[in-house]
Amino acid sequence: MLPFLLLLPFFGAALLMLLPRERLSPLIPAQATVMVTLGCLALLGVATFLPPSLELQEITGERFHHFHADWMPSIGLTFSLWLDGPALFFCWMVLGIGLLIFVYAGFYMDPADSPWRFFGTMMLFMGSMLGVVMSRNALLMFVFWELTSLTSFILIGHWHHKESARKGAMRALVVTGLGGLCLMAGIAGYFWILSTASAPGYVFDPSTALNWDSLWANRELLLNHPASVACLMLVLLGAFTKSAQFPFHFWLPGAMEAPTPVSAFLHAATMVKAGIYLLGRLYPIYWSWELWLILVGSAGVITMLVGGFMAMTSRDLKQLLAHSTVSQLGLLTAYYGFGFDRAGGDKPLPMDLLLVLSHAMFKGALFMIVGVIDHGAHTREWTRLGGLRKYMPVTTVLTIVACASMAGFPLTFGFVAKELFLKTALSLHASSPLLAYGLPAVAIIASLFTVAYSLRMAVSPFFGKPRDPSIHEHDIYSIEERGDAEDDAHDGSDGAASHAHAAGVHEGGPGLLIPPGILVLACLVAGFWSPFLGDLLSPLVNAPFYGTESGFTVAFFHHADKLLWTAVFLFGVGVLVFLAGKRIMESYERAGSPAIFRHAYEAIFDRAIPSLAAWTARTSQTPSLRRSIAVFFAAAFGIVVAAMGYSGFGLPGAIAIPAGLWMATLPIALTLPCLWVAATHRVLLVRVLAMAPIGFFVAMFFVFFRAPDLALTQILVEVVILIVLLMVLFRLPQRFEPRQLRFDPTAGAIALVGALVMAALTYSAMGSPWRHAPTLEGQPSVRDYYLGNAKYPAMTSEEAAAIGYPGASNMRSGGGTNVVNVTLVDFRGIDTFGEIIVLGISAIGVLCLLTVNRRRRSDNWRGGALDDVGHVSDIVNPETHRQLEMPYRAWPSPSLLLSEIGRLAPGFVLIFAAVLFFAGHNAPGGGFIAGLMVSVGLAMVLIAVSWTRSRHLERFDFVRLIGVGLLVALLTVVVPELFGLPFLTSGHWHFHLPLLGGGEFATAAIFDLGVFLLVVGATMLVVQKLGKE
Amino acid sequence: MELLITLFVFVLYFGGFYLMMRRHVFEVLLGTLLLTHATSMLLIAMGGWKPEERPPILVPSAELPLSAYADPVPQALILTAIVIGFGVTAYLVVLIMRGNEEMNDMEMTERPREEDEA
Predict the structure, then answer these.
(1) How far apart, in whole angstroms, are the C-alpha atoms of residue A915 and residue A936?
(2) Which residues are CB-neighbours of A442 under 8 A, at least 6 positions away?
(3) B7-43 pLDDT, tens per residue?
(4) Distance (Å) from the alpha carbon of B64 to chain A's nearest alpha carbon
(5) Smallest Cα–Cα separation from A943: which of A797, A727, A760, A632?
(6) Does A838 contact B at CB distance below 8 Å?
(7) What is the domain extent for residue B43?
(8) Has residue B62 been placed in a domain?
(9) What is the Cα–Cα distance from A644 to A632, expressed in whole angstroms?
(10) Residue A542, SS3?
């Protein structure tokens, strides 16, 4: 049940991405989103009213729906969901308000304004938000937490053609993203504390340690650890950034660049509540800690004050609402702070969710109403509006009721919430009077602003005379005039608003009015029925952790006690502040907004970090590639020298050259002249030919090092490289100019130093004393593990011990005697898999270089003029296509001898390759070597035989071969997984083949077949395409 | 023998580094080829050199101790490195060819980046 509920929006979003957009009505996304939300609500309804699954919580005896699946249990991350009280409440709130806002958005958004992306992202967001509140595991919550940040980023930047929208989106992402990282660090801190803690009767279980209930159960451990303060602060940073608490409040007004439905849903009703939700989860752990009051309470009241003041001095109604949201979030935060109880007694925080619900209802409604005003009157600045009640009667009524709730006017839901807050604030006990009286005092001053800006919102746009008469004169009000207000700019992209523009000031349609109307009605109904609502919510209010309720009853209208009088008095003062509001605003604007924190943000993220990045790029990535290389070398040398200094300089024991190996001096002696020619000769071809022997000398050294596979591979690769180089060489200028041959002393000096360091490293490595040592006690070294396990599955532990194999008890077999090959296809198979992918990519890269964006090949390398046809679309350009199909012409009629040999030799080569391939598991050979061998053979055909006779080779689609090879390899990676075995698990059995002899067939050979096919495909693709040139 | 191997590595690295820093792109390509060789040698040297070691192909009947075989780990690493080296070389050489086609120039001219020009 729970995973379905959680995943339904994600499926919906995926569906929206996959549907054929061009052929469907642009109204589909909105409808689909509403349907998905209804589906979620149905599931949630079933989950709410169905008796929970039979799990008894040992801690509290509570029962609720839950779901568990392992993800990475060893690091504490499990896919654990539950529907406990707060989760249930938030799910209902997210889905309920989401439904109304989606309906509203369907009417608000212009169908031409990328509705697929918009509603798809909205659904992703809804799913992420459900994930945040349903996660029982704190780390899982973090995953969804980050998802909400990302989706919010996309939604704020919906009108990404506006710079302000991009900036706002980026700021929101950076602030909440950094906060999210802090949150993750804090959760990791919890895990660390719990994993290292010891207490009588305490058992650490990584898979459940980060569950909210177990965090609560082990709160003594969390509180008494020396690192607990750091953990709390990190987690709180996450909550504060998400909920726009001071001093991180500045991102929320910037996020108002989003379309109104986004602001209403994300930045008023749900996402910013995630931080509040987190505080609610933390509160039962920390409520007896005075630090909690100091951090949370003071952040809350300061945010209340700052947000309230900013709201009162905003001209734009949407900005006013944004700042008021900041202020109200501060109130919610402060409420949790005030829940502090030094006695640590049995005083639960009453009805925190009621406050959350109240705010979500009136603020969601108000944001939607601002959208209606924006649609109808084409501006959101109250300093220009006025007298709208004549034109928008319904909107006027809705706004007044919603604002009454926001101000906490009696008869509304907001009043109940405000009373709760005041009662808690006034009964605060703290060690210092500064806290006990100071914090509530600031909160009460802030609540004056609340009254003032609520009145501003309710009165200024609707009553009195229009402040700016031009907005009522239909024809004068033009787009040019609106252009001056940057905040209005998005109307230009909002087709519906532009369309309505001609009609002048008008009321919104029913689709725009009914959703906020329902919320406003709910504010009233919930106000009347608050006792009932209180009964409904009280079992949800974090009940599992608190035990009994405190006996606080929610009442619609308390008798005239001092709380009521306080509220009335505050309301009166608030009216006075409202009357002085405009003057305050104007003098504040004259003084200039300080916006310290936004400026600090901009100084760091818009200036300091970009200029640091630019400086790094300027100094290390200079315009000169050679300087870049030199910088890179210097860094690499530094690392190598440091590493050698760290691990010590080993000295090889024997320096003498054994008899019979004196011939090893030969390749070195021959390398020097080859190198000299390769570095200095003035003809390119000669240089390339001089390079080739060096590769063969390296192969000789591989023989000295007892590496037959390497020697074979090296020789074959050297041949293939030589073929490729020669094919390209014809298209390059052949001669070096004299100035290009001049010796470069700087390069020589750097190279000398570098080569000395590397030589010292080599020498030291050969003498390292720890080379053969076991890595850990009782564990074999990697070398011995591979050698010991390559073949002998049948070897008993005694036998293994007899040949000096330390890890005898931990045997697995690769089923082959060629340990190098077994290592490649079995022990390090996943590594090889990645490497063949790289090889395939480089071959396809060659293909792209040769076909994509190519100027017409009118023999420009022969000095012809360049035509400008080059665009990516050239692939389908028939002109270019025809040219690519042109017959080979690089090698005019090859000699008869060569062509005859070329016709016969490939057969032998292929047979030899087959032998190499099948022998590979037990003798030198294998997929890489056989693949290279086949490539050499086929390349010979391509070069030697007249082209007409090798049409099928010329036409063969080697890209497909690369794909097939990759697929075959992938199968052997994945199939064992289906049988519940680890990746690349190999089985093997005996077989007998005529001619090739008997042997053992390991399934790893199938992987090797994939390697083989890919190597052939990649190599031949390059040769084929180059040959076609 | 160790000194000899070291000398070989030194020569290869010196040539590789020097050519890498030249202006002519083809010299850079030859430099990368040399660096591939040099690094293969460095890696295999890390497995140590003992003349009495056998290739890492097990002889089931011989009941040899594991220390009789050469270290297979660097060999396996180098084998894939060589093949990838081929892929990279092929890509580079075609890149050079295309660069020459587009710009008719084989030198890495130190032209300023676009934003510096602006």
Answers:
(1) 15
(2) A301, A302, A304, A305
(3) 999 999 999 989 888 888 888 899 999 999 999 999 8
(4) 7
(5) A727
(6) yes
(7) 2-51+70-107
(8) no
(9) 18
(10) coil
